[in-house]
Amino acid sequence: xxxxxxxxxxxxxxxxxxxxxxxxxxxxxxxxxxxxxxxxxxxxxxxxxxxxxxxxxxxxxxxxxxxxxxxxxxxxxxxxxxxxxxxxxxxxxxxxxxxxxxxxxxxxxxxxxxxxxxxxxxxxxxxxxxxxxxxxxxxxxxxxxxxxxxxxxxxxxxxxxxxxxxxxxx
Length: 170
Prior knowledge:
membrane; mainly alpha; 3-stranded antiparallel sheet; transmembrane; transmembrane helix
């Protein structure tokens, strides 16, 4: 039941992102803004799709998930989604400034909120990237002792780690 609700929630969020992209895309002034804005939304939609796929795979009674897929899901939640969000906010701000400068159009009501959100998102993205880099550095430096290194070729089957180690792989 919880898996179904989480999938419905993620699908609603996915549809909301698509609708927001379509409505805001029409208001972009230049093609460069439209392209970067679309890249941000593609990154966000890809991250949501990966998270949705992860939730779906975990909710299955006979789920088989590789460690590589778990790491990919963590990277999409930790880096891809926040960076895409920052890119989307930045393009909205640049578009509003361009419209003000070019057409003397008034700033949108949410403009001040976008500025504050951009500052917060920038700081959180920097912290997020530093943490991911430190985790990656720790994993690479102590590959044999890390959870990811020990289980890189393993799979999770029904919540239990199954070793795929073959002594002839070396």
